[in-house]
Amino acid sequence: MRPDLRDGLPPGRPLRLVAVHAHPDDETLATGLALAHHVEAGDDVHVVTCTLGEEGEVITPSLAALEGDGPALAEHRRGELDRAMGRLGVTHHLLGGTRPRWRDSGMAGSSAAAHPRAFAGADVGEAARALADLLQPLRADVVLTYDPWGGYGHPDHVQTHRVTARAVELLGEEVTGAAPALYVALVPASWAQEDRRWLRAHVPGGVRSPAGGTARVPDPDDPFPPGVVADDLVTHAVVDEGALPRQRAALAEHPTQVTLHEGWYTLSNDVAARLPGREGYAVWPASREALIRAQGEPPA
């Protein structure tokens, strides 16, 4: 069993934990189990969101007109995010204040990447300074974010990793003893394979999505995203099926992005993914060299 996120931290007081994410819903999809687990343990849990997801796809037919309307979709997703944070029981912050300094950059190659406020194009030092200033008064013990490849390569996820890693460095440079432990979210390959077997056994055929597509279970030989790594590269884990109801309740507040089923969900691509009650992490930057040897250089 891998150690949990309290590893090496002082016992006897609530843990202070902060997760940093790119868009609304990422917090619950990527780290929601850890957030729910630590809320239920009585810890002080926060989420920082870097953009309002202006470029997201909308899978709810009644809200389809929001897709492509950046300001309107941002406000709608802000509401979804606020409700999801209430379900998780965490304190929420937007990077840059009530009106985020940066916006969703869209997928790689999209026209949104050229927007002057696109987060993927932000100066890393400037964004890290803003994040460090937000983190410092929270006195976090632990910070969670994406791996260097952004889980599946979204430019804003990659940028969030860069910005968060630099912000934690700044805290260590400027305030002695103030740097929190930084963990990046990863999936052990054996878990990913188990999840695909579970999906094949539990996802019925012909399940339709709100937008009219059909849920698809990944084939056994489909490639995994770069966030799936060899088991020995995952140094820590949160395993708590009891926290799943809280994670599910938060996901249910993101209907423009997520369709929930019993034990699994789909996004706009209709590919079924499991909610397994466990999440893997690696301490950063100690794991950097091993991860890069295994997965190759992350995006520049």
UniProtKB/TrEMBL annotation:
- What's this protein's name? N-acetyl-1-D-myo-inositol-2-amino-2-deoxy-alpha-D-glucopyranoside deacetylase
Q: Which organism is it from?
A: Serinicoccus chungangensis
What is the top EC class of this enzyme, as a single word?
A: hydrolase
Under the heading InterPro entries, the entry gives: GlcNAc_PI_deacetylase-related, LmbE-like_dom_sf, Mycothiol_biosynthesis_MshB
| Molecular function terms from GO | metal ion binding; N-acetylglucosaminylinositol deacetylase activity
What's the superkingdom here? Bacteria
EC number(s) of the enzyme? Answer: 3.5.1.103
User: Does the keyword section mention Hydrolase?
Assistant: yes
Output the NCBIfam families linked to this UniProt entry.
mycothiol_MshB (TIGR03445)
Pfam families the record matches: PIG-L
Q: Name one GO biological process term.
A: mycothiol biosynthetic process
User: What are the alphabetically sorted keywords of the record?
Assistant: Hydrolase, Metal-binding, Zinc
